[in-house]
Amino acid sequence: TIEMDPGTFDTFRLLKLRDMGINRISMGVQSFNDTILKSCGRAHSANDVFAALQCLKEAHIDSYSIDLISSLPGMDLELWSNTLHMAGSLGPPHLSVYDLQIEEKTAFGRWYSPGVF
């Protein structure tokens, strides 16, 4: 297994990884909402996620996971519900959900102010 973010790979790179023995991709999607992704400093967009899924299909990598993070700044219950529904509708073999944890010396740690998010 290798962890990758949408928008950081193409079919050719996946084929090379597969040739090296990598047979599972854990993809750090986090959210399908571009506003949320941008506010969290993510480099990818929702469209990058869909393109990445197409690359996985073209490379015949059937074992992958979509990783989501709940409680991201600006994410309300409706946005979170939309994210879960979108992830489920894509039918990934595995779906991981992590709760946002604020760690010191990270971007969120620098941005965090109690009561702001």
Question: Briefly, what is this?
Answer:
The chain has 117 residues and is α/β, with parallel strands linked by helices.
Could you characterize the architecture of this molecule?
The chain has 117 residues and is α/β, with parallel strands linked by helices. The chain has 5 helices and 4 strands. Strands 1-2-3-4 form a 4-stranded parallel sheet, with helices on one face. The N and C termini lie far apart (32 Å).
**Silhouette:** globular
Specify the number of helices: 5
Q: Report the radius of gyration as a whole number of Å.
A: 15 Å
The chain-level mean pLDDT equals 90
What percentage of residues falls in helices of 4 or more residues? 25-40%
Cα distance spanning the termini: 32 Å
**Poorly predicted regions:** none
Summarize the biggest pleated sheet. Answer: 4 strands, parallel
The topology string of helices and strands comes to: EHEHHEHEH
| Coarse structural class | alpha/beta
Order of neighbouring strands in the sheet with most strands: 1-2-3-4
Beta strand count: 4
Strand content: 15-25%
What's the arrangement of secondary structure elements?
Blueprint: E1 2-4, H1 11-19, E2 25-30, H2 34-39, H3 46-58, E3 64-70, H4 77-89, E4 94-99, H5 107-111
Parallel strand pairs: 1-2, 2-3, 3-4
Question: What tags apply to this protein structure?
Answer:
about 120 residues, alpha/beta, four-stranded parallel sheet, 5 helices, about 40% helix
